[in-house]
């Protein structure tokens, strides 16, 4: 590690600590599938103490089966992280080699890793867990919701109307890549009590129809984050935050980002209602606040006519037994039923969220 970092920094460094970067226990209990190993590295260079994170990508599942699959994801991340405002900075892309596990920037590699700056703070997921578990809700929760909505409005304001092929590709990837709809449905065990093969055949047919609808919307191609959900937002004090783990490329459909974050509010709301039986509450307020602010800042009413397959995609992620093995069966069923109802809607009416969840 010391030899590798000296090469990256182009001067001698002294490594003082290398430890696994583990998530807090309360965050790890519900979420099952992880993307790989992460290590916190602290070192001194030129009298300065620096902290970075070295991360790998997990083998198998969701289209990461081959070395080339994992390399593609990490190379894409390294090339896009530093181009997005408030994103954690990528320092280097490197590889492990067959030579006694040595690390170097590239060469006779057998597995890639990415090196990023270390960002202190607390995941936004912690806020949502606290609200769900305690029902405590404060003005800062609303302010952070608006701040995230404002952030997306700013990111999506950057348009790219001269590359329609990129838009079509991102829509195609939503369905066909390993982490897309088809890859996720392959991860479900048919006959497990809440889904069967007929359900997924119908589900995928509806999504294919939406793909052909979206192919004519290439004018919407915009700068995106591509993986904008609570596990990828790190808050410090008040509204100071950094985003993590941009995925899929620099450009895409804004509905992807909006669905990812607002679906998280639905997810936690369903878990609360499973205990209380009441669909209204703090997460519905956050859901509406996020949407109203986003539309007020962007004026993008058309997003309500294209977000349906993206909500379906995110519903599959959250309902997946691989992703959330401890999720109550009732909530899994509600997520999948929500996806079907949304796919049938020509225009998503966020103001009547309850009608899609009952």
Question: What is the CATH-assigned architecture of the largest domain?
Answer: Alpha-Beta Complex
> Number of DSSP helices?
13
CATH classification class of the largest domain: Alpha Beta
N-to-C series of helices and strands: HEHEEHEEEEHHHHHEEEEHHHHH
Q: What proportion of the residues is helical, as a percent range?
A: 40-55%
Based on Cα principal axes, name the global outline: globular
Mean pLDDT: 88
Q: What's the end-to-end separation, in Å?
A: 54 Å
Report Rg.
21 Å
| Biggest sheet details | 6 strands, antiparallel
Q: Could you explain the architecture of this structure?
A:
The chain is an alpha+beta fold. The protein has two domains: 2-117, Phosphorylase Kinase, domain 1; 122-357, Alpha-Beta Complex (Aminoglycoside 3'-phosphotransferase, Chain: A, domain 2), CATH 3.90.1200. It contains 13 helices and eleven strands. The chain has helices spanning 2-9, 25-28, 67-80, 124-134, 139-156, 164-176, 181-186, 197-214, 254-276, 282-298, 308-319, 329-343, 353-357, and strands at residues 14-20, 38-45, 48-55, 90-97, 103-104, 109-117, 122-123, 222-223, 233-235, 241-243, 251-252. Strands 1-2-3-6-4-5 form a six-stranded antiparallel sheet. A three-stranded antiparallel sheet has the order 7-9-10. The protein has a two-stranded antiparallel ribbon with strand order 8-11. A hairpin with a 5-residue loop joins strand 4 and strand 5 (103-104). Helix 9 (254-276) packs antiparallel against helix 10 and helix 9 (254-276) packs across helix 11 (308-319). The protein is globular. The model is unreliable at 23-34 (pLDDT under 50).
